[in-house]
Structures are given as structure tokens and as C-alpha cells.
Specification:
The chain is an alpha+beta fold. The protein is 33% helix and 16% strand. It is globular. InterPro entries: Cyt/Met_Dipeptidase (IPR051458), Peptidase_M20 (IPR002933). Keywords: Hydrolase, Metal-binding, Protease.
């Protein structure tokens, strides 16, 4: 499958700006966005605002949404206000909209836990990037941000609207994002574009991917499912396919050790994953994708934890 010229330019841009894109992840890893104990909550706020600034620097319209309070597990307990960040690129009603969910909080980490490096300092060693959050979930979020940056660097219009929904409380249990999901993403649910993901993978790697789940699940499904099911039928009674249709669009394998000491992401996977996200953005805008069924797609490292970024689609209507 021949790679389109404009996509080849984006791939080359990712390669040429590899160090810059790694440095963006380095900045994110340095923020100790651990929700418990409560004394770490300012770092969650710092992470929210850092991400907001990063998205806005690329042209996104961002909002911080208050969604209640949450009791904090761990030493000291207490509760913290829940905030969810939404960021929107594009509002063209003629374009499809890609909605990306992710979380920028992470598990506590310390060298005394068995880390070989400082957990909140991104360290490149033997072709791998070590640091807390590099695999779950800052790495994939930064991959999407870098993919958007690459589109802009080569002067290529992003062919879809993109909306981020990012939270800082996933590691402390699921946030109540149901209202935000309903308001922001599910007012007219549309197709899951599995073929777009297959084509994106083929464009980058020259082969078809294995369609597997690696026997995993994702706790956030408990939050998404009732909202998705509530909007399972359009006025024409078009069915929204449920969680049995799960597609993997991974940035790295389960060996990355999310939530464990010495968490890391392979450097090659971080760079190639960024290209894959860019290719996917390109492919979901293709006119070859049918729009006569309503389905849902999720993306990420679907193991026993949230590992990647989960997505679904809708068309915008005025």
C-alpha cells in the first residue's frame, strides 16, 4: 500500500523532530501527578494546566470542567475536586470528529520501590524511555499531541475535528465523566472505523495487524458503557455496537510495565506510535469509510489497565 505524499511528509517530520517530541514527554513525566496522598493534588492541577497550555499552543480551544469531588485513597485520605480537561481542534460540521480519552495521573513511584532510575525523570537507556507515566498514560497522550504538531509543522490541514477528554483521577478509580461524555461526544454517535485503523497500520508497517485483546479489560468501560448504551439508537433505530467491538491501536506492548517499577516505553514504539496516530487521523477522514452503521471504537493498550487512548466517533450537526 503506497503511502500518500502528504503522509510521508508527516512521517518524516516525526523522525526529524524526534528529540523535540521526546522532550515533550520528558516535561510531562517530570510532573508528579499522583492523586494520593492528597498533598500531591497541586501536581494534578499543574498537569491539567500544563496539558491545557500545550493544547492551546497548537490552537485548541480548552475548558476545565468541574465534575464533583473524589475521596483519595492512600496515606492521609481526604478528598479533592474532580476536574476534566476538554480540548477541541476544529468545529467544521462537514468533518468527522475524533474524540480521544486519556488520563494524565499516574501511580505513586519512588526509587525505594525498586526503580533503577528516578521515576519522575525520563531516562533514555538502551532504546527505551523510562519514567512513571511513560506507558500509562502520558506517553500515548503526548503521542496524539505530537501527531497534531506534525500535521501543523508540514502545513497539512488536519482532516477531522479532534476533541480530547482528559482526566487526572483514573488511577484513583473511575471519574464520573458520563455527563461530559454525553455532552461532548455522544449526541450523534457514528461509525467505528476499523478499516481505517487497518489501513493506517498497513501504511506504516506494510502488514496487517493481529486483531487481539491480549485477554485484558479496562475499568473505564464501567463508566462509558451505560452512557454509550443509553445512546445506542439513533432516531432511525441504528444500533450502536457495544464493547464486543474493541480495536487495538497500540503504542507499545504489555511488557512496558505500566504501574510497575521501571515503567518504560520503547523509543521506537513511541515514535512509530506517533506516526500511527497521524495515519489514523488521515484515514478516518477518508470517503471510503461507510457511514450507514453506528458503531464505537476504542484504542489503546487494552490489558488489565488503561494503557492507551480510547476513542469513538460522531458527526457534528448544527
Amino acid at each position: 500500500m503506497a503511502v500518500p505524499v502528504h503522509l510521508s511528509k508527516i512521517f518524516k517530520c516525526v523522525d526529524d523532530n524526534q528529540q523535540q517530541f521526546i522532550n515533550v514527554l520528558r516535561e510531562a513525566v517530570a510532573i508528579k501527578s499522583v492523586i494520593a496522598p492528597l498533598k500531591m493534588y497541586p501536581e494534578i492541577l499543574r498537569m491539567i494546566n500544563w496539558t491545557k497550555t500545550k493544547l492551546e499552543s497548537l490552537g485548541a480551544t480548552c475548558y476545565i470542567n468541574e465534575t464533583g469531588t473524589r475521596s483519595c485513597r492512600g496515606t492521609g485520605g481526604g478528598s479533592a475536586p474532580l476536574q476534566t480537561l476538554t480540548g477541541q481542534f476544529g468545529h467544521d460540521p462537514k468533518k468527522k470528529t475524533l474524540c480521544i480519552y486519556g488520563h494524565f495521573d499516574c501511580q505513586p513511584a519512588s526509587k525505594r520501590d525498586g526503580w533503577n532510575t528516578e521515576p519522575f525523570e525520563l531516562v533514555k537507556k538502551r532504546g527505551k524511555l523510562y519514567g512513571r507515566g511513560s506507558a500509562s498514560n502520558k506517553g500515548p497522550i503526548i503521542g496524539w499531541i505530537n501527531a497534531i504538531d506534525a500535521f501543523q509543522k508540514v502545513g497539512q490541514e488536519i482532516p477531522v475535528n479532534i476533541k480530547f477528554i482528559l482526566e487526572g483521577y483514573e488511577e484513583n478509580g473511575p471519574n464520573d465523566d458520563r455527563q461530559i461524555l454525553k455532552d461532548e461526544c455522544l449526541d450523534n454517535p457514528n461509525n467505528a472505523y476499523f478499516r481505517a485503523g487497518l489501513r493506517a497500520y498497513q501504511l506504516l508497517y506494510g502488514m496487517e495487524p493481529d486483531l487481539t485483546r491480549e485477554d485484558g479489560d479496562i475499568p473505564v468501560s464501567i463508566t462509558f458503557q451505560p452512557v454509550i448504551e443509553r445512546y445506542s439508537y439513533s432516531p432511525k433505530q441504528t444500533r450502536l455496537v457495544g464493547f464486543e467491538n474493541v480495536m487495538l491501536l497500540p503504542m507499545g506492548p504489555h511488557e512496558d510495565g505500566a504501574h510497575w517499577e521501571n515503567e518504560m516505553i520503547d523509543l521506537r514504539n513511541f515514535i512509530q506510535g506517533t506516526k500511527l496516530f497521524a495515519a489514523f487521523i488521515n484515514e478516518i477522514a477518508s470517503n471510503e469509510i461507510p457511514t450507514d452503521k453506528a458503531e464505537k471504537i476504542k484504542d489503546g493498550f487494552i490489558r488489565k489497565y488503561i494503557r492507551g487512548v480510547h476513542m469513538h466517533f460522531r458527526d457534528l450537526y448544527v
